[in-house]
Specification:
Layout lengths: L14 H15 L4 H4 L8 H9 L18 H13 L8 H14 L2 H12 L5 E4 L15 E5 L2 E8 L10 E7 L10 E7 L5 E7 L5 E14 L3 E2 L5 H9 L13 H11 L5 H29 L5 H25 L8 H13 L10 H11 L4
Helix pairs in contact: 1-4, 5-6, 8-9, 8-10, 8-11, 9-10, 10-11, 10-12
Length: 378
């Protein structure tokens, strides 16, 4: 039976300098509002993303030929850990830097790579992922958006939903049914679609906090060239599920509520409250364990291994952790205290949005099924 084996992380010698570089950028250009600093990897600020690109902090591990910087996976980990711990507004470039760029480098034709990858590394091109569809729930394979061959290209029709960041994105990588009459995981392909293509439209989905992060995306007779096909026709399911593994083990899977934890530490510093001190100790120990697990996955990726099961475990445990923080703070702290105004605002915001944390990148039920299969339990 496969189990999760953590290992000592050999942090690069450049880590201290990278941390200082990120902290300086955040101090100069980052978000000030503590509520907006929570769950920050969904908060878009294109100007901040461009500053990161100018500083060489996007596309860090990619080939220089395509605008990257050929730095290590652990150097990139240091940067994103610092950004998330500080609540920096990284939502505009997040998906493009985390998964779309690597996917294009691995599977894209030369035209796609040249058009998009250097622009992502400069912080000038953002991406969204077209997976979920209406009335499908967690059933990703029930794709109805369809692409049909037409001459030397394709015509695309359909709809995607819960598309994070579509309103600020320059392109979408969509999973569509490219083989008429196919079912489930068969006959699916991925296409790279510029958002300004005629027939593509975006409708906002406003969440219960009034924020605009999700969208519906509509495709109405969208004409695409043959070069829009990503990878191999009919291999879309395999490509998309491999792409999802890039989502699941980063520090964003346990740091979404870290701003609230830091506010709790600040608030408790002026109180003589044993319950708050014990809660801080517990949350610190849990965060440190998750950090070790997450960084271990990054180390294995750097060696060229495929720690897909370990990444899925990090996502599940990390989601539980970041969802628990606002509930534990609400139970332990006196949020009616006049000194707790900021703590209260951040806590109430996260109480509203944190239930969604376990949906992104795969629902908890799907994730537990993947873990059970990987452990030989089903």
């Amino acid at each position: 039976m496969q189990t999760f084996v953590t290992e000592a992380v050999d942090w690069p010698e450049t880590a201290p300098a990278l941390r200082e570089q990120v902290r300086a950028l955040v101090a100069a250009y980052g978000e000030r509002d503590p509520v907006r600093r929570a769950n920050s990897w969904t908060k878009a600020n294109p100007q901040f993303s461009k500053k990161l690109g100018e500083a060489g902090l996007l596309g860090m591990t990619w080939p220089k030929e395509y605008g990257g910087h050929e730095r290590s996976q652990l150097e990139r980990y240091v940067v994103i850990e610092e950004l998330l711990a500080a609540g920096a507004p990284v939502g505009a470039h997040w998906i493009a830097d985390r998964q779309s760029g690597p996917l294009l480098l691995r599977l894209g034709n030369e035209e796609l790579k040249r058009r998009w990858v250097p622009a992502i590394a400069r912080g000038e091109a953002f991406a969204c992922i077209g997976l979920s569809e209406p009335n499908s729930g967690s059933d990703l394979a029930s794709v109805r958006t369809a692409a049909r061959r037409d001459g030397d290209g394709w015509v695309l029709n359909g709809q995607k939903v819960w598309t994070t960041g579509a309103h600020v994105s320059h392109f979408i990588i969509a999973l569509v049914r490219s083989e008429a009459g196919s079912e489930r995981q068969q006959g699916l392909s991925q296409f790279v679609i510029p958002m300004d293509t005629p027939g593509v439209s975006v409708k906002p989905i406003i969440d219960l906090t009034g924020a605009h992060e999700f969208n519906e995306v509509f495709f109405e007779d969208v004409r695409l060239p043959e070069t829009a096909l990503l990878g191999t026709e009919g291999e879309g399911w395999k490509q998309a599920t491999a792409e999802l593994s890039l989502e699941r083990a980063g520090p964003e899977r346990y740091l979404s509520s870290m701003v609230l934890f830091l506010e709790l530490v600040r608030y408790a510093g002026a109180k003589q409250d044993m319950a708050l001190q014990q809660l801080i100790g517990r949350l610190t120990a849990d965060a440190w364990t998750l950090r070790l697990m997450s960084a271990s996955v990054a180390t294995k990726l750097a060696r060229g291994e495929d720690p897909a099961l370990e990444a899925t475990m990090v996502k599940d445990l990390g989601n539980s952790y970041e969802q628990a923080i606002p509930q534990l703070v609400q139970a332990a702290a006196d949020l009616g205290d006049t000194d707790a105004a900021t703590l209260r605002d951040v806590c109430f915001y996260l109480l509203q949005v944190s239930p969604s944390f376990s949906l992104r990148g795969g629902t908890r039920e799907i994730i537990k099924g993947i873990i059970a299969r990987g452990l030989g339990l089903r």
